[in-house]
Structure formats: structure tokens, C-alpha cells
Amino acid sequence: MLIAKYGKGSEKLVKQFEEKFDVKLEAEYRDFLIKYNGGETPDTTFSKGRRKEVLRYLYGIKTEESIDQQFEYFDFKEKGWLPIGSDVFGNYFAIGFLEEDFGQIYFCNHERGYRKSKLANSFKEFISCCESNLVDVERMHPKACKKRMIENGHADRINKVLQKHWKEQYKHYKKMKQEELVL
User: Fold this and answer.
1) Is pTM, for the whole model, over 0.85?
2) How many CB atoms lie within 10 A of CB 143?
3) Where are the alpha helices (DSSP H) in 22-105?
């Protein structure tokens, strides 16, 4: 699996998070936060059996996409899990922190009240079921985006707002550094 990490975390940062929110994190997930502190996972798919989910972010602590930012949407203590990532639609990947499902990974659909469905027994197993492709930066170039829109018969939808978005997207992906996630 490839990740564009947010930067290194630290044992101190993770410990402060656990104390602040009164949770104990599973060892493999703690190690991930210390080493990567979350990151972007563009073009990544979780696949196990017939189950497939797209993974867009793995949250970090005090980062651009942060675990605690997600707490405004629900009471994680009541749910018994922490959001650790999301897909492009705002659905969560979560890790159980209660004794009966400690360290297990779930998919939580926001359209179904964040009802959880189990994906893996551990964070390490979850990561092993994820596969990524390198981002094709040239495909993101504004000229390439415009060309595809025209080829697909949508030239009438091209406007300044969309062109600005393409430029920002290209700039973002051009500076992105993806690396293999190793636990």
C-alpha cells in the first residue's frame, strides 16, 4: 500500500492523544501513527473476498486530516470505535477500542447511521488487504482534464471554477510523495 504521509508522529503525541480522549490504541496502529502520522492514500482499494472499499485518507493526530476533527460528527465513546480514515464519500474506516473488538477494523457508512461492518481483525491485516497505484500526475494536468471532458462530450461544462480546481489538484498531486507503508 502506498501513502503520502503527513509526517512523523511521536510516542509523546500518541500518548497525549490517548490521555486526552481516554482511549488505549492497539500497538500496530500506535506504531503507524508514530511512523507516518496518517496520510493521503489516493488510488487505494481495500479488497478482501468479495468486499471492496476505496480508502482515501488515513487520519493522523494534529494533521490536515485528523482523527479528532471527526469527533464533531458523532460521539465516538458511544460507538466504541475511533475513525482512522475515510473514503471519498465521507464514510469512515474505524478501529475498535473496547475489549470485545479491540484493534478490529470496520467500515462505517454515514448514510446508515455509521453502522459498522467488520473488515479485518487488526490494523496490520487491514493494511495487507489494501492495494495502491501511483498517482498519474500527468493525467491530472489541466490540459489533460480538459481534453478528456471534450472527448467525452462535456465541453459545455468546462468553466473557470472547474479549471481552477484542475490547477489546484495538479499542483497538489505534483508535489505528493507516495511511499510504501511498512509496519
Assistant:
1) yes
2) 10
3) 27-35, 76-79
Q: In whole angstroms, what is the distance from residue 117 CA to residue 97 CA?
A: 15
12 CB-side CA count, 13 A: 0
Name the helix (H) or strand (E) containing 167: helix 160-175
Percent of the chain surpassing pLDDT 90? 83
Q: Which three cell numbers stand for residue 92?
A: 469512515
What is the widest separation between alpha-carbon atoms in the chain? 55
Sequence-separated (6 or more) residues with CB below 8 Å from residue 164: none
Helix axes 142-151, 160-175, angle to 10 degrees: 130
pLDDT at position 35 is: 96
